[in-house]
Amino acid sequence: MNSFIESVNYFKGNNPEDIVKQYGTPLYVYSEEILRDRMHKVSQVITKYPYTANYSVKANTNVNILKIALEEGLNCDAMSTGEIEMLFKAGFPKERIFFIPNNVASSELKYSIEHEVMTSLDSLSQLELFGQCCNDMNVAPEKRLCAVRINPGVGAGHCEKVVTGGKKTKFGIAEEDIPEIFKITEKYNLTIAGINQHIGSGFMDGQPYLDAVTNFLEIALQFKNLKFIDFGGGYGIPYHKLDDEKDYPMEDFKKKLEPILDNFVSKYGSAPMFKSEPGRYCVAESSVILGRVHATKQNNGHLYAGTDIGMNVLVRPSMYDSWHDVEVLRGGKPVSRDNLIEQNVVGNICESGDILAKERKLPRIETGDLACILDTGAYGWSMCSTYNSRPRPAEVLICKDGTVKQIRRRETIEDLMMLF
Ligand code: LLP
User: Fold this and answer.
1) Which residues are catalytic?
2) Domain boundary pick from 238, 253, 277
3) Are residues 118 and 250 located together in one domain of the fold?
4) Do 255 and 161 reside in the same domain of the chain?
5) How much of the chain is in helix, strand and coil states, percent to nearest 5?
6) How far is the CA of 151 from the centre of ligand 1 (A)?
7) 162 and 78 fall within a common domain
8) 279-300: per-residue pLDDT in tens?
């Protein structure tokens, strides 16, 4: 594909140069159309049984994006009380939030108990702590509900750092510890309302997830009267779309999932609410970053294009060696990919690892061009930092009707100074 942004009319007739003239660079630019499309697709993964898709907000907690998730009928999962606060700010009621923390202090558990947000505990010691918090707060027996996160023994993901199931991970309670769960719930008079798992992030082959669901549902038979079973997130997106990579095979995946659920429902005798926790799938493809090329150079035969998109703006390439497609825009239009030469697209941060695209075949980049980095809506802004005291970028939304709306203002040096 020569240009993704042209193929989907990403900017809806706006010239990216006009957008950055108003909002500056680096700039996260979201497409409302793509956002709503992906959010709708995940809400349809299970149609035969009661099902909710919980958007996993760690991928992107912009409150204006959360409001769109609310409108699209998604529930959400949160990893911290900060994420819960963002959800409340966006208008989510407590019933539509699932808190899935890892290794938290009693203060966070007390917050979720006080706000009556369903909470999953991912170790025996956190379950014990939750029970103690309920005792400390004199929680009534009928309100002592929680979930537990089980490790189904299967993991998957785009790299080792994001695999969260299987033998080598800090997450979840191992299957052999399930009898201990029941001892703790009895001790504190807790009721396990649901169980959840999450095997990892960013896989394009659904089979490990289906295997994990199969294992998990076998495990679920040990729990009586479950109100919900949550299979976790992880569906990948085509990061190599300029090389025509195909989408995650959602339809095929749906077809394979259904008989696994049928089998469970007939054994269990009823269908609890099934849930999933997609983060990346909902938001990744809905954003690009626009950055200015401020310098080009040749160092010992290697070509570099120096942009203002440092690793503080998008950390995924330096953190995971992740691939993000790059389009080169000149005068706001994509430069043809007919003649490609190997170049390095780098940022403005004082680290040699500050590389967005390494030895990448791209149209020859010139100073003054815009670099347009694709698929940055998930784990993009939410993982930004102020390293090198660089304020974090602004975010704008291209609405369905083509209007451009700022959905987060650019951070300023004054904002950074406010902490002192
Ligand atoms: N549920 C739980 C419990 C999780 O830990 C995660 C992601 C998700 C759901 C959502 O996974 P998703 O559908 O987005 O794959 N920063 C990494 C990804 C880390 C994912 C952490 N947990 C990246 O940029 O690739």
Assistant:
1) 350
2) 277
3) yes
4) yes
5) 35, 25, 40
6) 15
7) yes
8) 999 999 999 999 999 999 999 9
